[in-house]
Amino acid sequence: MLKRKYFAQNAHVERETDDAEVNAERTADKGRTPRKRRFSREFILTLVLSLVFTVIVAIALSPLMNIDAVTITGNRAISDQHVTRLAGRPVGTNLFLYKKSDAVRALESHPYVKEVTIHRHLPHSLSISIKERRAVGVLVNRGIFLQFSTDGLLLNSTPTLENTSIPIITGISLASVPQPGGKIKNDAFEQALAVINAMPKELLGNIQEINVAKTDNILAYTSNGIEVRIGNTRKIDGRMSALNDIMNQIIFSNSIQGQVEYIDMRYSKSPILKLKGKDAADIDLDMDGASLNISAEREAQRVQGTTEAVVEEDPNGDNDTNTAN
């Protein structure tokens, strides 16, 4: 009797255990996605993405994306046709297959081109923006006119003078002339370039010639024939700024009577202006502008006939007071 009861209890426990395991498996199966169904979803998603990618690539490489318009800006010295040729004649080329880096490299090899930016524009156009170097002077060397930029690069060389709006540099003989795009190497030329780069743009437009035959006595000549004595390039920025004020406020304003023979800018503290047939006069430079002033000391020396000008410092800055004869 006891054995029968024992076996009955064990059988009941085993049935409960089996029932619990079955229920657990059923519960797990309810939260589990069938493997076949999950595989189908992943396959369909992959297929759709592949089709979309294929369509995009097909459109991108199709004739629909061939370049049919090129916009060029910033070029003045170089023609649109020349820019297009250097850029590889992009019209007809696929927008995405067009090699921008090669085009930029080819364009920047041109002496006049300083910087290039190329942009693609959907669906089929291209823009090329150019920043050019500009000619700031012409160096006369053995009958050849060499145009150069602010960084001293040779832009072109011609047997005749083509650009008369920029100053001519004289007094230099180059041992060798670089190819266009190469740097001009000459000490006297470096001095002339320093003078040009120190001049405000409006002043540079009024300078016709700069002579650097003597680098410690550089001379410039304005378009109306006034000689400007520059001296060396010490403190050149301030002296050229002062010269610009003198030209605007005294020369171009017609505030003086008579013909100006020269302007002496070698003395930064006291520039000198000389009229033909008259005594030289100091030029006072202050916040209110430039004006002429003949000092009492100068007037006394004029009466004595001993000097032409009294200045506050010599061209080399060694003395506080100097008499220029």
From TrEMBL:
Origin: domain of life: Bacteria
Is Ribonucleoprotein given among the entry's keywords? no
Alphabetically list the UniProt keywords.
Answer: Cell cycle, Cell division, Cell membrane, Membrane, Transmembrane, Transmembrane helix
GO cellular component annotations of the record = plasma membrane
All copies of domain POTRA, residue ranges = 65-133
The UniProt annotation puts the region (Disordered) at 299-325
Q: Where in the cell is it found?
A: Membrane
Q: Name one GO biological process term.
A: cell division
Transmembrane segments in this chain: where?
A: 43-65
User: InterPro entries this protein is in?
Assistant: Cell_div_FtsQ/DivIB_C (IPR005548), FtsQ_DivIB (IPR050487), POTRA (IPR034746), POTRA_FtsQ_type (IPR013685)
Name the PANTHER family on file.
CELL DIVISION PROTEIN DIVIB (PTHR37820), CELL DIVISION PROTEIN FTSQ (PTHR37820:SF1)
The entry's protein name is Cell division protein FtsQ
Q: Which organism is it from?
A: Peptococcus niger
